[in-house]
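Exercise 3.2. Students should predict the tertiary structure of the chain below and write it as structure tokens, then compare their answer with the key that follows.

Predict this chain's 3D structure.
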Amino acid sequence: MAKVNKNSRRNFIKGASLTGLAGMFTHASVAAEPKVEPSAKNLIFLVADGMGTGTLSLAHYWQLRNKGRPLNWMHLLERRGVRRALQGTASASSPVTDSAAAGSAWGCGQRVNNGSININPRGKSLEPLFVRAKKAGKVIGCVSTCRITHATPAAFVANVAHRDSEDVIAEQYLEREVDVLLGGGRRYFESSTGNRMDAFVKKGYAISKTLGDLQALSGQGGPLLGLYTDDHLPYALDRAQDRALAEIPGLEIMFEAALSRLSDSREGFLLQVEAGRIDHAGHVNDGAAILHEQLEFDRCIETALQFCERHPDTLLIVTSDHGTGGCQLNGAGEAYKNSGAALDGLNSMTASLEAIAGEVKRTGSLYRAYFKSVTGLDLPEEKVAVFNKAFLAGAEYPAGLLADTFKAELGLLTAVGWTSHNHTAEHVELAAIGPGASLIPPYLENYQLHGHICRALGI
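Answer key:
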């Protein structure tokens, strides 16, 4: 049996929030330090925020039925040299993490309380992974379909006591010179109280506000700030259907632009790419939206693998920070024969519940004819009346109200079921390939990944 390093054991017990025999047994299985491989030059870190295994399975079976091929995630698992792991997701304050604590576990190598970003429970700031890499001479970038100041990208760069301090996060991006920032959240950079973009321009950043801008900047070098909406980017489902959203780039396009911008660095790069709205669709309980967010993320895996084939000194990590909503494709019909056909029900939905809620806000009521045009569902009049009454009474989240009011109808159409509107404690999938991938054990806690990354990169 391998000798357990006493310091490692002490640090584990100190850093873990959920101690006991089970935790000690888990650590014993990974305590031996693996042999360090030659350092990776680059890191691509793909995050499907809020993706539980049920969401992954839903997208996989939809892809098989509709495209006749498995997900790229499944192809990745078949590759020689890939490392597959199961990852624990607890935070310092709860067995159910939020994105700030989960991202910080990767970012600083310690568990922190939910809501905080790279600040430990005693209030001490911890050095984020990308700051460490920047000191080593590498360039760094963050891409997200959320506000770029949202919890997951911030966890690789920033230090704030609470994730809602997005103005502070934006300022830290400038101070710490993140080389590429692409996503939503323009309101934290450009507002009536001040234009932070001017400061980025003075530091040499190119600015992109539309897909056309981003395409025009293709092939150029130097730092880049791309902000395409005031808030989060619209769902992939809505971007595909609404021509008014055509100038908002999707995750794949932003990822490719970031790779092009960073890959010329002599010392290498670290790039974090987040499909953040998988999480939001899970919170709402929107089966069609979560499906298309997952499919968009999956296309990024192919882009990443193609890059890694051309640049074999790149470590690729594909994972999730936690599950959201408890999404599952459920058995439907006698002997579950209708479950496959229920996947086709997702195809009849051409707008997210968020977009439908936006139309309700615009018109003041939900109209049956409109709902049927974007979902294929003919709703009972009495249920529509119940929804409209609750909406007019000031429902805080109309999209969630849609999901709850018409849960039975949506479930019959799609066979997608949910456990809650909240995060879940489930363990999540992780796959890695490239230099340093073999350092990752078959099971690990989220905070342990940080050390494996640093060893792989030699920083």
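Discussion points: The radius of gyration is 22 Å. Residues 1-32 have pLDDT under 50 and may be disordered.
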